[in-house]
Write a structure and sequence with these properties.
The structure is a homodimer. The first copy, chain A, is 38% helix and 19% strand. The first copy, chain A, is an alpha/beta fold. Chain A folds into two domains: 76 residues, Winged helix-like DNA-binding domain superfamily/Winged helix DNA-binding domain (Arc Repressor Mutant, subunit A, Orthogonal Bundle), CATH 1.10.10; 111 residues, NAD(P)-binding Rossmann-like Domain (Rossmann fold, 3-Layer(aba) Sandwich), CATH 3.40.50. In chain A, the strands form two sheets. A seven-stranded mixed beta sheet of chain A has the order 5-6-4-3-7-8-9. A two-stranded antiparallel ribbon of chain A has the order 1-2. In chain A, strand 3, helix 5 and strand 4 form a beta-alpha-beta unit. The longest helix of chain A is centred in the first third of the chain and has 19 residues. The structure holds a DNA duplex.
DNA sequence: TACTGTGAAGCCTTTCACAGCC
DNA sequence: GGCTGTGAAAGGCTTCACAGTA
């Protein structure tokens, strides 16, 4: 297994977790890791970790494991996180402000270069060092700064309109935090960051059903819920 | 198919999407919906929607569909979102503030009754009508307000400590937004709201691989990313 | 005809088992 | 011995096909 077509989506979702674990291990000064180290930390099957890593093209050394630095770089490269994608954020509400304040997107290959809204109360403001423009300025600014990704943090009611604005401005990929499906052309890449999916899984477990599982519950990644390291 | 054991996790993750669609349809004044209506909106297979809905115990009418109001209630009840769970939030950073400002958790069965942090700059403050207490006050307040759920929004480095504080305070379920796996007893329910999982899927698609898929890409719910409707 | 409901088939992901290597 | 790498088996979710119903 190596490079091309069709990486399982579950694998893609786990790769960021591996990066997080690996960076933690790196800070401990270690030079290499084994899949058992990773799987222990994340409560996954070691074989699965090996299969996942194999997609990135890295090869490990029997008896030793994987060279830590190379492994991190391999995953980051595989995800394209070693290159910088210019992004804009549309919808400067509570969540939008939170994402604008998050100063680590660089590690994930993303740089927010502009923010947009329609509310005069926030247009023109400077939030965590980002200037908020009126949405009407999107086409011009998107082109000027070569913006490829749109981060959509409007309320659901404004999401479709805002996403159309993004597409008209030439944006090809949308990270959608609004709780609605978008209706866009097939050439636009959309990924829904659905917060409530995880909450549904949690709520259901709390309501008594799905008690004691057969195996020690593996790292739960309810698709749609993602992690973010905010500062306290 | 009806009530008990082992609801597929993908089903659980889709249920919130159905609720969102249904509430939208409800605002249009309609009385009933069919699974084809829902599947069209979310780009899913109608059969899958029917299977998912059957877990909630609702039954539809051939030729008509499902009674809209009953269907919404059935899903909400199934998820326990028709009852109120008291939650606390630990980690009042950017994301924590965003969640505190989100005033619709009631629709999802959650009520944040207190917030905690260790940073003196924020302890004692009032954020979106929530008082921020020092983490040391957690045990007492958790007991006083009967807090069952913890929302963890600290940086990764503080997550394990904070989660232990929660457990010591008697909290049984944790909605974890920090990018780390927690190490807790098997009786604690943890759900990781991993933001980066969705970003990984998006990034990978942008990097050229995984082009034109065979079928019109279905609603993408990269496990771990969730949606939230902030206000602009 | 236009839906629901469901058993069976198909596909994808995970887990198992074991060969290879140092 | 301890770890990687991988083919094969198992399991779970999705899709198909069709019976049932008003």
């Amino acid at each position: 297994m190596a490079d091309h077509r069709s990486v399982p989506e579950p694998t893609l979702r786990r790769l960021p977790c591996y990066i997080h674990v690996l960076k933690k291990v790196e800070q401990l000064g270690r030079q290499s890791v084994s899949t058992s180290d990773i799987s222990r930390e994340l409560k996954l099957d070691p074989t699965q970790v090996r299969k996942d890593l194999s997609y990135t093209g890295i090869v490990g050394k029997p008896r030793v494991g994987y060279p830590l630095k190379d492994l991190i770089e391999a995953i980051e490269h595989f995800l394209g996180w070693d290159e910088c994608t210019h992004a804009c954020l549309v919808g400067v509400g509570h969540l939008g402000k939170a994402l604008l304040g998050y100063n680590r997107f660089g590690e994930y290959g993303v740089r927010i270069v502009a923010a947009f809204d329609v509310d005069e109360a926030v247009v023109g403001a400077r939030i965590s060092d980002h200037i908020v423009y009126h949405i009407d300025a999107l086409p011009e600014i998107a082109q000027r700064f070569n913006i490829e990704m749109g981060i959509l943090t409007t309320p659901a009611s404004a999401a479709r309109g805002a996403s159309q604005n993004m597409v008209e401005a030439g944006i090809k990929a949308i990270w959608n935090f609004a709780p609605t499906a978008l209706e866009l052309g097939a050439d636009i890449i959309v990924e829904n960051a659905q917060l409530y999916a995880t909450l549904a899984v949690l709520s259901r477990q709390m309501r008594g059903r799905v008690q004691a599982q057969p195996k020690p519950s593996p790292l739960r990644i309810t698709p749609g819920a993602e992690q973010m390291g905010p500062e306290p």
